[in-house]
Write a structure and sequence with these properties.
Blueprint lengths: L22 H7 L3 E4 L5 H16 L5 H11 L2 H9 L3 E8 L2 E9 L12 E9 L8 H15 L4 E7 L3 H9 L3 E10 L2 E11 L6
Parallel strand pairs: 4-5
Antiparallel strand pairs: 1-2, 2-3, 3-4, 5-7, 6-7
Helix pairs in contact: 2-3, 2-4
Length: 205
C-alpha cells in the first residue's frame, strides 16, 4: 500500500455533487491543460515533488525530519519507477506551458476501512506556490475523478494530516469523508493522518 500525504492548493467552492466548480471560478479553471507524466520525467517530477512538499509542510516540521522525508520520497530513480508502474499515473496541470501543479493516482491494496473492492489512491495532490488560489486544484481534481472512472474504480481514497484543516475542508467540499486514520512518518516524527474516502458514481453516458 502506498502511503503519502496530500496538501491542498486552495479551498475552492464546489456544488453538492462535488464534480463541478462554482461559476465564478470556471473561467480560471478552463485555462489549464492536464497531461500525463511520461517516461524520462523522473528528474522533473523529483524536483516538482520536493518543492511542493517542502512549500506545504516545511514550516510545521523540523528541518532534519523534512530533509529525511524528501530524500526518501522524491529521488529521481524513485520517480522513474513510479512513472513506469502501469497501476500509477501522474497528472500534470499546465497553464500556457508553465507547470501549475500535479497529482498522482495509484491502484494498490487499500486500508481495511476503505469500503470498496476497486478503489484508487490519490497519493499526491499539489499546486505550485504561484498557482495557489488560481484554479489548479479544481482542474486537477476533475482530472483525477475522470481518470479514476476511466480505470473503472468505484471510489478514491487519500490521507491528509489531521492538523491540515484547510486541506481537509477542501476534500470535504469535493465529497470526501473520513473513514479512518493511519500513521505518517516524517523523518523521526510520527504523525497522524486522516483517511478520507469518496465514492464514485458511474460516468455519465
Amino acid at each position: 500500500m502506498g502511503i503519502s500525504r496530500l496538501s491542498v492548493p486552495h479551498a475552492a467552492r464546489c456544488n453538492k455533487e462535488a464534480d463541478t466548480m462554482d461559476s465564478s471560478k470556471a473561467q480560471i479553471t478552463s485555462k489549464f491543460h492536464i497531461r500525463r507524466g511520461v517516461p524520462g520525467e523522473g528528474r522533473f517530477l523529483s524536483a516538482l515533488g520536493r518543492k511542493t512538499f517542502f512549500d506545504s509542510f516545511a514550516a510545521d516540521n523540523r528541518p532534519e525530519d523534512m530533509a529525511a522525508y524528501l530524500d526518501a520520497s522524491f529521488g529521481p530513480e524513485k520517480q522513474a519507477l513510479e512513472l513506469a508502474d502501469p497501476m500509477s499515473v501522474f497528472l500534470i496541470a499546465e497553464n500556457e506551458g508553465e507547470t501549475a501543479g500535479y497529482a498522482r493516482l495509484l491502484q494498490s491494496p487499500a486500508p481495511p476501512c476503505i469500503p470498496s473492492e476497486v478503489p484508487i489512491q490519490l497519493v499526491r495532490f499539489y499546486a505550485c506556490e504561484r498557482w495557489i488560489g488560481r484554479g489548479a486544484g479544481p482542474a486537477l481534481m476533475r482530472a483525477c475523478i475522470a481518470e479514476s472512472r476511466k480505470r473503472h474504480c468505484n471510489g478514491i481514497w487519500l490521507s491528509a494530516w489531521d492538523k491540515n484543516s484547510r486541506a481537509i475542508r477542501f476534500y470535504q467540499k469535493w465529497g470526501f469523508f473520513q473513514v479512518g486514520t493511519q500513521p505518517f512518518q516524517v523523518g523521526n516524527d510520527r504523525q497522524n493522518d486522516l483517511i478520507l474516502w469518496r465514492p464514485l458514481q458511474a460516468a455519465p453516458q
